[in-house]
Amino acid sequence: MKLFYLPALQVNSSATDFTLTGKGLIFLVFVLLLAGIQPPLKAQQISIGQRSNLVLNGNVSLVINNASFQNNGNFAAGASTVSFTGHLDTTTANVSGSESTSFNNLSIAKTAYGLALKSAVIVENVLAVTAGNLYTDSNLTLRSDVNLTARVDVVPASSKIIGKANVERYVPARRSWRLMTAPVTNSNSIYDSWQNGGVYAPGVGMLVTGPNPSETNGLDVSVQNTVSIKGWNHSTQQFVNVVNTKTAVFSGNTGSADNLGFFVFVRGDRDPVNTNPNYKNVTTLTSTGALQTGTQTFAASPVLNKFTLVGNPYASPVDFNSVTRTNLVKRFYVWDPSLNSVGGYVMLDDLDGDNVFQKSIAGSAQTKDIQSSQAFFVQTNATAAIASIAFNESSKSGNNNNQVFRPVTATPTGVGNGQVITTLNLLNSDNTITLADGALAEFNHLYSAAVDLDDAMKFGNTNENLSIIRNNVSLTAERRPAATANDTLYFRLATTTQRDYQFVFEVSGLEQPGMMGFLEDSYTGTSTFINLAGTTIANFSINAQAASAAINRFKIVFKPISAPLPVTISNVKAYQKANQIAVEWKVENELNMLQYEVEKSTNGTVFTPVSTIKVNGVNNAYNSYSWLDLTAVQENNFYRIKSYDNNGKVKYSSIVKVTIGKGAGGFSIYPNPVTGSMINLVMMNQPAGEYQVKLTNIAGQSIFVKSVESNGGNSTESLNTGSKLPAGIYRLEIISRDHLHNTQKVIVE
Fold this sequence. Notes:
The chain is mainly beta. 1% of the residues lie in helices and 48% in strands. The chain contains 2 helices and 58 strands. A hairpin with a 2-residue loop joins strand 44 and strand 45 (580-590). The N and C termini lie far apart (77 Å).
C-alpha cells in the first residue's frame, strides 16, 4: 500500500496530468517539491482544474489532512482509499467542484468539524466514518453495479451521517420475486424511487403493475395487470397488495428502525416491453433517504410461531449471528431469486448456537449475512409482551455476497450430524438441471418426535413446493430423534407440472448396522435404494395421470436388514476400445456376495466363462467393476455377468452386444422385444460424448430419463427402468450433445 499525505495541492493547469503510483510509504509534499510543484500556503485544498487529471493507480492511500477537495476536472480513484483527517481546521472541510467525484473507499476521520459534500459524490466500495460527522447535503450515492455494492462501515456513537443519500441496488436480468427494503429513513414514495418517478431511463428503475393503473395511483400498465409489489400484514400473517405507489413509502421519518420490507417482482428496467414474460434486462433500483446508523430495533409479533418481515436497516451486509433477538428463534427465511423460474424460500437457522447455520436448500447461495436492501422473515418463539430484533453497528459484516442478487450456480454443501438433505431439481430437455426447492431432515437424540420450534415451517413458493409432512404440518426442516429401522420421512410435493424432475439425496451420519434406506414411489410402485453415507440421484416424471402428481407420492423408509438382499446389477456396459472391448458393470445392495463371472458369446445363445472377479470389499451399498476383453472378434461379441452369493445362489445380468467392424452408424435395441425392466441400447459407430435417452409410452407420457456417456465407436448401454414395464409399444428417443435426434421403437412383452 502507498500512503500519500496531502496538506495542500493545486493541479490547475488546463493540460496537467498528475499520477500517483509505485510502492512504499511516500509523503506527497516531499514528492511535489522535488517535482518543482510548490504547495500553496493559504488555500488548504486539493484543486483539480478543468481538463486536468489526478489519477491514483493501484492500492493507494491518499490522506487529505486539514484540507478540502475540489474537482473541476477528472479524478480517477482506482482501488484507492481517500481519507480526510485533521484537527486543526477552522471550518468544515468539503468536497466540491463542477464534476462528480467517484471514490473507491472514502474515509472520514476528523476530530474537528467534519466533511461536507457540496457536489455529487459516489462511493463504490466502503464508506467509513470513524471520527467527526459527514454532511451529505443530498449529494451522496452508494453505488451498486454488476461487480460490487457499496457499504457503510461501522459508525461510532460519537459520529453521525447527516442528510440524505441515494442507496443503489443492482438487479441482474432475471424475472423473479425478491424480498427487498430501502435501507433508509425519511424516504420518498415507491413511485419516486424504485419507479424512477415514472420516467424511463435505460437500466434504471422498474415497472410496478397492478389493477386499474392510473396517474393517480402510480401503477404501470401491463396486459395482465397483475400485482408486482406486496407488503406484509403482521396481524393476518399475509401479504397485502400495494395498489398505490404514490402514497406507499419505504419508511417513516423517526430515524430508528422504520424501513419496511416488500415482496417485489422485478422484470428489469421501466421499458414497457418487460411486461412481456419473454423479456428482461438488468436494472438498478435507487432508494433515497437518511442512512440509519446506531442501534436499530424492530418490534416483532408477540404471538408464538408468528412471523415478522424485517428489512436490513443498514446500507451494509449484516451478520444474523450478531443481531440481538428477544423471544425470537435463531432462524430466518429469505427469498432466493435464483431458484426455479421466479425464486423460492430458503430457511437458515442455528439451533445449537455453534454459529454454523443449516440451510433448507443446500444449493442456495444465501449465507448468514443479510445483504444491503434485503428483507427477511423472523419467527417468534414465545407469547410475550415484547418480541424484537435489534441491529447494532457491530452487527455489520464486510461479506458482500454477490450471489444473493447476482446468483451463480452454487455447489451444494451439507453440514451437521445425522441428516438427509433433499434437493428437488427441474430436469430440462437439454439435460441441464434447475434448482427448484429442497428440504432438510436432521436426526439427534436431543430432538423430539413432535413438531415444535426446532422444526421450521414451510413457506409456500410460487412454483414447485417440497416439504416434509409431520402431524399434518408442512416443514422445510424437520428435527427428529436418532433414526431407527422402521422410521419414515414423508414428503409433500405440490404445485408440480407435467415434466421431468430429479431428486438428489445427500445423506450423512445415518449408516448403521442392520438398517437400510429406500425411496418409495407410490405411483410406480418402485423402491429405490438410498445410500445412507453418500449421494443418491433419482429421476422421475409427472404425466397426465393424477396419481403421478399426488402430493404424497414419495417417502423415505428406513428398513431393518432381516435377510440377505439379492444383488442388483443395475447397469452393464460394453464398448469398443481400439481392437478390444471393455465391459463394465455397477452393483447395488452388494451384500453377502462371493464373486462375479464375465461370460462371453459370439452368437448370443451359448455363453462361456472368460473371467472371474472377486468382490471388492464386504457388504457394499454400491460398487463398480470392469474387465477388458483382449481377444474380441470381428462382428458380434455378446457379454453377460453371472453373480454368486455366499449361499450359492446364481443370478444373471442382461446381455450386452458390441459389434467390431466399420459398418453403418446407428442405434438399435437388443433384444427387442424386451422382457423385465432392462433395455439394452446398442450404439454403433457413434462419436464419444454424452447422450440423453428418454422413454415414453404410446400416449407420450415420460417413463424415465437418463444420461449415458459413450466412449465412442461401438458400445451397449443397459437402461434399467426400475420396474417391469407393462406390455406395449414404447418410444426411446436418443439425443446427442449436438442435438441430433434418433428414435427407436421398443416392444415390451
